[in-house]
Amino acid sequence: MSALAVAKKDFADAARSRKLMVLTAVFALFTLGGAFLASWAGDLFAEMEGEGAETTMDLVFALQTPAGYLVPIIALVIGYAAIAGERESGSLKFLLGLPHTRRDVVIGKILGRSAVVAVSILVGFLVGLIGLFVFVGSVSIVDYLLFTVVTILFGFVYVCIAVGLSSMTGSTTRAAAGAFGLIVFFWFLWSFISMGILYLVEGSLWMEEHPDWYVSLLSLSPDAAYGSAIAAVFGEGQFTMATAYGVENPPLLAEPWFGFVVLAVWALVPLGIGLWQFGRADL
């Protein structure tokens, strides 16, 4: 219950952030654009094939990429100062003077900030849903809700990463640098490093069939795991790295269902390290 008390207060404080409002508005605009793209794709498919497209899947496909970029940004902006900010201001000592343990504070921060990110995602996707009704006139509510749940889970993972990093340092500057350094690493360096390893092992970057280990390595980033999790829920392979590289029989680490395992690891490992570091820190 102590962690829930921290979460309630943290939710109220974080929800008033102007940065959050701006990012939520941007996310809502992207979902509205995604709804338009989904309707356009559906019309194009109908013209080419003589029948309607599955507009909900079109929307999921249109929203996966912007969500893959914007949700981590929202989660990191909301989470990176969760602990480090209070250590800098000195308010953390007051918080720990109440009947809260350090673990309660960290878990409460994660719950509170995850709820804020979830609200942001829900607002954005609600706009997309309205747009889909306006542009198309129909949508599978169940499928759309499933996609929303997976995206909220994705946001939760990045909140855990952000709060975990925030728990490791007493400086918001270092926490922000670490959080957004990971963004750069996941978005750019991960693929470049993977390609470098591929070249060293195989002697070429261009091949008819990429090795299983390479596809597995690419599938282990949280962003790729998000696509795998979506594929596992909908049974649509176009969201996975295996499909992107033309692998018909993906290895275990690239299987769609394994995306949930990867997301769990990315949530628990930074959180565990952060809890350990925060528990032994001299405040």
Automatic annotation (TrEMBL):
Keyword match Membrane: yes
Protein name as catalogued: ABC transporter
Regions crossing the membrane: 20-41, 61-83, 110-138, 144-165, 177-201, 257-278
Cellular component annotations (GO), alphabetically ordered: plasma membrane
Keyword tags: Membrane, Transmembrane, Transmembrane helix
GO molecular function: ABC-type transporter activity
